[in-house]
From TrEMBL:
The keyword Transferase does not apply. Pfam families: FA_hydroxylase. It is found in: Membrane. One of its GO terms (cellular component) is membrane. Keywords: Membrane, Transmembrane, Transmembrane helix. It comes from Halomonas lysinitropha. The chain crosses the membrane at residues 12-30, 51-74, 86-105, 150-170. GO terms for biological process: lipid biosynthetic process. Residues 93-229 form the Fatty acid hydroxylase domain. This is Fatty acid hydroxylase superfamily protein. One of its GO terms (molecular function) is iron ion binding.
Length: 272
């Protein structure tokens, strides 16, 4: 099974990524939630190129990546689920949930620790909020995130299938909940009981600090409610709120070279 999984893994990832990206892009055209003053051609090339750089960086530094680490842990008997007799369905389900919780706490950590924030703020420095914002992460942050994920996968003894499911779903939900798409209010209220919706996550991209430090979930919405970081709506409303952070407000800061240099720049207004 693991051999089959490794054979088809790249195609599963590419197909899921391309399908969700296309679906969200079309949805944004047909039913946009907010008007955008910065054009797509000014943002999308850099936001999409950063995905290529992130992927290359991970494959270079972590050739096995998370699925490979899960397979290695299974071979060596490392981790919780490789040391206890548990049904596969339970190990897969529990692993996906625990991995999602780990990403929630990692996200909070990247907001709380100043030098980690310098890496993560590139994600928040986007001047608009749409599907490509969900792909915009600095390569150094991606590498640190992968290192944390590998540690959790190994300690948990997560099955390779669970890791693949988690990563594919996380990537898809990140594009979904960053979408500039309109959902009926009633549908949003019900959906955000089981998944982070665009309206829920958009609050996290507010320029207001107390709103930026809320709604940290990417996939499952329960952690924000459970750990007291949930905020229902932005104070200025979704149409009135300002997206981004107080620094890097120039359109030129959306260029790929400037995005990559942002962690090494310390503007005076960045108080994190």
């Amino acid at each position: 099974m693991n051999d089959t999984l490794m054979t088809h893994e790249p195609w599963i990832r590419i197909t899921a990524f391309g399908s969700v990206l296309l679906l969200m892009a079309v949805w944004e055209v047909l039913a946009a939630r907010r008007p955008q003053s910065v054009r797509r051609w000014q943002r999308w090339p850099s936001n999409l190129l950063i995905v290529v750089l992130d992927t290359l960086a991970v494959r270079l530094v972590f050739p096995l990546a998370a699925v490979g680490a899960a397979m290695l842990a299974a071979e060596r008997g490392w981790g919780l689920f490789n040391g206890v007799a548990a049904p596969m369905w339970l190990a897969v389900l529990a692993s996906v949930v625990v991995l999602d919780m780990a990403i929630y706490f990692q996200h909070r950590l990247f907001h709380a620790v100043p030098w980690l924030w310098r890496l993560h703020r590139m994600h928040h420095a986007d001047l608009e909020f749409d599907v490509t914002t969900g792909l915009r992460f600095h390569p150094l942050e991606i590498l640190l995130s992968m290192g944390i994920k590998l540690a959790v996968v190994t300690l948990l003894g997560a099955p390779a299938l669970a890791v693949l499911i988690f990563e594919v779903v996380l990537n898809a939900t990140s594009m979904f909940n960053h979408g500039n798409v309109r959902l009926p209010a009633r549908a949003d209220r019900w959906l955000r009981l089981v998944v982070v919706t665009p309206d829920m996550h958009r609050v996290h991209h507010s320029i207001i600090r107390r709103e930026t430090d809320s709604n940290f979930g990417f996939n499952l919405p329960w952690w924000d409610r459970l750990f007291g970081t949930y905020r229902d709506q932005p104070a200025a409303g979704h149409l009135g709120m300002t997206i981004g952070i107080e620094v890097f407000r120039d359109v030129q800061d959306l260029r790929l070279d400037r995005m990559l240099l942002q962690p090494f720049v310390n503007p005076p207004r960045d108080v994190k």
